[in-house]
Design brief:
Low-confidence stretches: 1-10
Number of helices: 19
Bound molecules: adenosine-5'-monophosphate-propyl ester
Shape: globular
Distance between the termini: 23 Å
Structural class: alpha/beta
Strand content: 15-25%
Length: 636
Amino acid sequence: MAQSNIEETGIKTLYHPSKEVVKQANIKDYEKVYAESIADPEAFWAKEAKQLKWYKKWSKVLDDSEEPFYKWFVGGKINIIHNAIDRHLLTWRRNKLAIIWEGEPGDVRTMSYHALNREVSKFASVLKSMGVKKGEIVTIYMPQIPELVIAMLACAKIGAAHSVVYGGFSHEALATRIEDAQSRVLVTADGGYRRGKITDLKSIANEAINRSPTIEVCITVKRTGHEVHMENDRDFWYHDLMNLPIASPNCETEVMDSEDLLFILYTSGTTGKPKGLMHTHGGYTLYTSATHKYVFDIKDEDRWWCAADPGWITGHSYLVYGPLINGSTMVMYEGAPNHPYPNRWWQMVEKYGITIMYTSPTAIRGLMRFGDQWPKRHDLSTLRLLGSVGEPINPEAWRWYYEVIGGGKCPIMDTWWQTETGGHMITPLPVTALKPGSATKPFFGIEAIVVNENAEEVKPGEEGKLVIKGPWPGMARSIYGDPDRYVSTYWEDYKDKGWYKAGDSARIDEDGYIWVIGRIDDVIKVSGYRLGTAEVESALVSHPKVAEAAAIAIPHEVKGNSIQVFVILKANVTGSKELEEELREHVGSEIGPIARPDKVTFVESLPKTRSGKIMRRVLKAKAMGTEVGDLSTLEE
Ligand code: PRX
């Protein structure tokens, strides 16, 4: 089991919401609504779905005839864009700001729903003129600029699916994802700004394209203006295309089936090959908007800031789709939280009057290190709610976030969920009494339990595997091109019961509060980013001097976990400091800088089971100086 970083002392302390918070909460009685949602989930979801715009109403809420390939809102016709943009144009929200964007150098752009619609429609027309068809997957590889959002929305509008690849990934990682999705069109940018430097995205994209024969068209947004290589017939500048008559602002939103593909998003699993989780128009539209509305108590006056990169699921669900469906004004920022100074984020909160802020424990811990004086220089009084996501938040960081950033008046929504779940699964609502470090209770319609090896529920306080009973609308429908892997990864362990295996360990305390501890599979969470040990290992083995490698996660004060690797070198190669650095670099360039191991250790052999599986827990115990545990399956 993963190492717990939850202090037992945190369990007893309850933080109750203030009267003001309760008074304006969209949901006042969690227990009552929760009980109703569990008594009849289909009725609950049908009622929620009625708040969305459908071209045609569904005939069946849930079709479980091909379990676990569940279908939601069968027969319904919808498009997420019809809900995220079109319907707002008919109301006063047409002139409400949809996006307030700030670049790292300090440049600012704002866009109303009207303006966003024009940009999205124009780019949708461009994509159509490039022959992009309904169902085709367009790969997007961009920095955090408004055009990233525009590109995603434009794809959805014409019924194409998007696959956003995080802008911090290497050309290798990008090429593998393009190949899996068989994308014909890539949308990228010349670069972006990060810590005062330019990230040279177009060069990385070019290297990936050289390995990706499927790419016929690459559209590049000019962000930094530095010299980049463009090829005739393949490369087009975004601004050139958007100035041509093909960029018509009149573009109909495509009518989609509820179950039609909206996007795929690659995430790490237990093998080296990332899996493309598939999300659909109907269920995802409903789930992201309902969770955003109830968990973050969203109001028209709010200034919502989700600090996640759209390259990850948090960005998809709560930077882009959930907020736009709810007609919110979102804030988006391009760069690093501490550039040029550690007050950059707090400056943003003050400048834009941000009311709700959603970020990761890593970011909070990272900024906490610089001390209270940085946030104290700013008026953060507009904040009314805070959010945390991506990894367990330790009570110390929780309290700092609560006291110093939230001024002791903003409840923290510690939301547990996954790329696979589409949206929040275990989370407080603003009215929930909070315990620092606990994601508290399940969202409406969700039943979460903790079980032992025999699939029996464990006693309160005992650690076990986190399981979700039954389907929910926001769930991923499959893994792109690999339905068998979808079944074996998530559903096979509890086949007879129809339960979903989350891959996390957790415990539930006597008050029914859920404490998520961490991954129990070969997935590592570093700074909230999700990586697979197998990905890191195959990157290492691709180095000519490496024979074999094992990667493990070691608890880290700021990053949550850091990566440590054990490497067997090829015969006649000797380890050295230089080689350690070379291997770190190599992993960074194969996957992306986030995957760079903190520590490289050269070894003669690796602990393995008789069937040849690396026993990572033995390596971890050794690295941390803890008990090794049962060694009966160890080969030698
Ligand atoms: O281990 C859990 C952790 O992040 C994993 C999912 O990662 P990913 O698909 O990248 O999605 C992250 C953003 C939703 C989970 O299996 N995790 C996520 N949120 C929390 C968390 N662990 C503890 N507390 C959370 N609030």
